[in-house]
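Supplementary Methods, section 5.1.

A reviewer requested that the exact input to the structure prediction be made available. We therefore reproduce it here, unchanged from the version used in the analyses.
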Amino acid sequence: MAIEKGHRNSQMAGGEPRSPSLHRSMNSIELLNSEIVDCRVCPRLVEWRKLVAREKRRAFLDQEYWGRPVPYFGDFEADRLIVGLAPAAHGANRTGRMFTGDRSGDWLFAALFRAGVANQPTSVDVSDGLRLTGALMAASCHCAPPDNKPLPSELAACNAYLRRLLADRPWRSILCLGSIAWTVVHRTFGCPIVKFGHVVTHRLDSGVLLVGCYHPSQQNTFTGRLTEPMLDAAIATWLER
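The structure derived from this sequence is encoded token-by-token as follows.
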């Protein structure tokens, strides 16, 4: 995979270069996060995330929304990765942390807790003490998109961050939540796309294991398309247990 390490690139997406002193004081994930939260490359997403943050949902009128791109979350030294689609408008776009403050996160973090990856089964806000061990969370698109549907051009713009992340270290395994994340990860690695399915696996020539998992969206969990045992099975496969 001929893509540069994240720490070698000092240019923010859509912004000014970072100073050398900032590079020396940050690890690669911190540097990527500092660039992600300042990104304004996609006008439609910038407008939407700000609109949602201003208007808010009635249940959260007393809260200050994050309203910016959502950074990576988890163990910055991890060698296992989780890639989702995009922040929920009133979830991560509100709280500023991936899969935090919505039903998808309730399912995902409960499963990660059962697997011993998370230190608690709930994810409410950034001050709740949640920690992950050995795992990092990423997104195909770091801004909340209208109707939860980022445009192909927006996925392509955000892919610059994922490309640098994947090149940053030898990942052991990547859990892809949903078919879009599955496709995005395959394309970023530049490898043939295996048909997506729940607990479908693809071992790349580099050794990294890709694991498909139905997204823990309300549509999937409410209809029974994804159950707790199914989610546990996907996570166990990702952990190679």
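The beta strands are 73-74, 80-84, 135-139, 173-177, 201-203, 209-213. These observations are discussed further in the main text.
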